[in-house]
Specification:
The complex is a heterodimer of chains A (about 400) and B (about 375). With about 400 residues, chain A is an alpha/beta fold. Chain A has helices at about 1-10, 15-30, 35, 50-55, 60-70, 75-85, 95-105, 125-140, 155-180, 185-205, 215-225, 225-230, 235-255, 275-285, 310-320, 330-340, 355-360, 360-375, 390-410; strands spanning about 40-45, 60, 115-120, 145, 265-270, 290-295, 345-350, 375-380. The radius of gyration of chain A is 21 Å and the shape is globular. In chain B, strands 2-1-3-4 form a four-stranded parallel β-sheet, with helices on both faces. A four-stranded parallel β-sheet of chain B has the order 6-5-7-8, with helices on both faces.
Chain lengths: ~400, ~375
């Protein structure tokens, strides 16, 4: 009994406490911005946050809020409210939750602070454009759109020019809304911190190359929050250094996230926020560890295009060529590279009704991965925030069957 | 008015395109109204708007989940089934997330022919977006030249711009005639014409439209039918001709539409006094946007309110394809804005083909009764 409790204690990630603390203070800061005279910007998860940090604007992420709503199992209620407002039940559940939440200040933290401006980057989807238009009308506040042309097979010279020009337009927009000049020295510093934070986040994710993996994708879903919300700050850098030290220590001591790790799986698409614990336990019970995922790694997938000595110049390319803004074949190549890097034996795809750019094309990625690496795929039909689209018995049956097939394959 | 030849063409689009090909014409398929036909025509090829097969989906389901719209599924089915093999190439413009992924899936699975992505800007209201759009069109033209092995002169472009402008002018005129006297042209025939405009030889379209305008013009100039039951249809691509009949049977009259393969096709003629590519770009920038594009926060609402008022529509019926996110996001706002202007609206979410049954009919009847 004691040994088991000790083992459970040993597996707990200590940094979690620190993370919760940082996020609590972050939200208190954001929610009291009107009292402290700071400006608040709502920004999309793939949006260029660094110029906001450089301008002392507090960035707030409706998508992170959506994840919190989902994890708190409050998604259904808010989605239903949006549907009563006339929004189709087939629309993105983050958008539905957020649009409804804004009108009632609901959800786990009583709603987000009112925005002074909205910053929408369409590198993740076309949905954010519609969502931010709706919120710009609702809050009657200025909206900046960073339009990042889709890179089906390449990033053209004209696209690069267009995005680069928009970075200047973005800076002018911020100067106008904040009524102060843009500090380029400060921006350079924020840019360096952003890249350092991304490198550390990648290093944290890469600790799962070790066997047993010291953490799982389910842990990554949680620890992701800072690289999304506080990218470009010293705080994020310090936190990921702390987390990296802890992961490295676990590796040295051979502490695995899953008891007797037998199978290593790769997760694709957003988490199913209201069932992360259930799914984590379910896979762990089969000795399966989700060692990596295409979602949390997206926040450092552009590092190869970034130049820390000239952040503003390189961010046009970095923000355009992110994981979701590329063709299905390039996504498949990324998945294959991850399978190789993390030594994954299988792929678990969340076919997410809420996210068409992430999900349409998954069947082709599955075929390419099976052909190139002979790695089997499990597809889970669900939704990231709207629990009405989660058929537990069916999904449980599919996971069990998949794991049995993996076991048979292993012993064959 | 009979449109027998166009009816044959619309009923057998692939047969029609095959015949053109046999006659030595190159055929270029494209999805969505943001592809500039002018450039394809100037390059000596025939532009064919892909509208997707309506039935018998067998292969596309292996590539697309259930929550993808019937338009994208239908287009992919045409590609996978081999029907699309008649195409010398395809063009996918950047519009919605689903068409964006359709392009990738088509490129990876449908072999033969060239494949071009027209990565248009999403913002259409800034100088940098305009410059980018012109750059994209230039690249598109040179890609087309390479793919089709031709050189396009400015005179070629001017000629094709004149042709498409003439189609727009005639279509607009026909819409006006029908607006004044809806009974002169059945809704289903109008729909047929709109479909044919994307498939048939464009010279045949001009000829047919001229005849129709001449035939109906005299009668059509006389009066305007006024009434609360005048309906404006709105939405994306309409592929459900039944909607016209259903509204007529329920006692309404469709006086105008704002579909991208209808009333929005002929908006904003090309300005032909300068660089043709810039003119094509400016037309996209000045035309009311599809909800996938951004040109301010009130563009579509202002347009629909003005259109409904101008055309004397007592109500607006939105016809949305199920799983079409951009249109679904705009709906609550548009409905509220129309209401403020005293215009009632109804949303019909459909899949192509329309399911049999009385539900849509009942809803239309109830809506039209309310308009009394």
């Amino acid at each position: 009994m004691n040994a088991r409790t000790d083992e459970k204690e040993r597996k707990k990630i200590k940094a979690v406490k620190k993370m919760k603390e940082i996020m609590t203070f972050y939200y208190i800061d954001a929610k009291t911005a009107s009292e402290t005279g700071k400006k608040v910007a709502w920004i999309t998860s793939g949006g260029p946050v660094e110029p906001l940090i450089a301008m002392d604007v507090i960035p707030v992420y409706p998508e992170n809020h959506g994840a919190m709503i989902g994890a708190a199992k409050m998604g259904v209620e808010l989605c239903e409210k949006a549907e009563a407002m006339g929004y189709s039940g087939d629309l993105c559940s983050y958008a539905r939750s957020d649009i409804a939440c804004a009108t009632v200040n609901g959800g786990p933290i009583g709603g987000l602070p009112r925005p002074d401006m909205l910053v929408c980057c369409n590198n993740i989807c076309g949905t954010v454009l519609k969502w931010y238009e709706i919120q710009a009308r609702y809050f009657n506040c200025p909206l900046f759109i960073l339009d990042t042309p889709f890179c089906h097979t390449s990033f053209s010279a004209e696209a690069k020019r267009y995005v680069r020009r928009q970075i200047d337009e973005y800076i002018t927009f911020l100067e106008e809304v904040c009524k102060k000049p843009f500090d380029r020295d400060r921006m350079a510093e924020v840019g360096r911190l952003s890249i350092e934070g991304q490198r550390l986040w990648q290093a944290v994710l890469d600790t799962t190359i070790n066997r047993p993996a010291p953490m799982t994708a389910f842990d990554a879903f949680f620890h992701l929050a800072l690289i999304v919300t506080l990218r470009g700050t010293q705080q994020a850098v310090d936190y990921y250094r702390l987390l990296l030290d802890e992961m490295n220590e676990r590796v040295r001591e051979g502490v695995g996230a899953v008891d007797e790790e037998k199978y290593r799986l790769l997760w694709d698409n957003l988490p199913i926020w209201y069932r992360t614990k259930w799914l984590s336990d379910k896979f762990a019970a089969h000795g399966a560890c989700l060692v990596a995922d295409t979602y949390t790694s997206a926040w450092c997938s552009s590092l190869k295009y970034m130049n820390e000595d000239d952040f503003l110049e390189s961010m046009a390319e970095g923000y355009t060529r992110i994981y979701l803004n590329i063709g299905v074949d390039e996504m498949a190549r990324t998945v294959i590279a991850m399978i190789d890097k993390y030594g994954a034996d299988g792929l678990v795809m969340h076919s997410n009704r809420s996210c068409k750019p992430y999900s349409l094309g998954q069947y082709d990625i599955r075929s390419i991965v099976e052909r190139e690496r002979g790695v089997p795929t499990l597809i889970i039909e669900a939704d990231m925030c709207d629990e009405r689209n989660f058929a537990e018995a069916q999904i449980e049956g599919r996971i069990d069957a998949f794991m049995e097939m993996m076991a048979a394959k292993g012993s064959a | 008015m009979k449109f027998d030849r166009l009816k044959e063409i619309v009923e057998d689009p692939w047969g029609t395109l095959g015949e053109m090909k046999e006659r030595g014409k190159k055929v270029v398929g494209y999805a969505c109204s943001y592809v500039p036909e002018e450039l394809i025509i100037a390059a000596g090829a025939h532009p064919a708007r892909l509208t997707g097969t309506r039935e018998g989906i067998r292969l596309a389901d292996g590539h697309l989940q259930s929550y993808c719209c019937s338009l994208v599924r239908g287009i992919l089915e045409d590609g996978l089934s081999g029907r699309g093999a008649v195409l010398d190439g395809v063009v996918f413009p950047h519009t919605c997330d689903s068409i964006q992924r359709l392009s990738d899936i088509w490129r990876l699975n449908v072999k033969g022919g060239f494949h071009l992505d027209l990565v248009l800007p999403v913002k259409l209201d800034t100088d940098s977006a305009r410059d980018y759009l012109v750059d994209v069109l230039k690249r598109f033209l040179s890609d087309l030249e390479r793919a089709l092995g031709v050189e396009v002169s400015e005179a070629d472009l001017r000629a094709s711009c004149l042709l498409t402008n003439e189609i727009r002018r005639l279509l607009h005129e026909l819409y006006m005639i029908r607006w004044r006297r809806p009974e002169l042209l059945a809704g289903a025939d109008l729909h047929l014409l709109n479909r044919a405009v994307g498939i048939a030889d464009r010279n045949l379209i001009v000829e047919t439209l001229r005849e129709a305008v001449a035939d109906l013009g005299a009668d059509g100039a006389r009066e305007t039918t006024k009434g609360n039951k005048n309906i404006l249809l709105a939405g994306g691509m309409c592929s459900t001709p039944d909607i016209f009949n259903l509204i007529a049977e329920a006692g309404g009259r469709v006086v105008w539409d704002d579909f991208c393969n209808g009333g929005r096709m002929f908006l904003e003629p090309l300005r032909l006094d300068g660089d043709p590519l810039a003119a094509v770009a400016d037309r996209f920038l000045s035309r009311v946007v599809c909800p996938c594009k951004h040109r301010g926060l009130t563009d579509r609402a202002n347009h629909l309110k003005a259109l409904a008022t101008e055309r004397g529509a007592g109500g607006v019926v939105f016809v949305h394809l199920k799983y079409c996110d951009p249109h679904a996001f705009d709906f609550p706002y548009l409905k509220a804005e129309l209401e403020k202007a005293g215009i009632a609206s109804l949303l019909l979410e459909v899949e192509d083909p329309l399911p049999p049954g009385a539900q849509i009919r009942t809803r239309l009847e109830a809506f039209l009764e309310m308009l009394d």
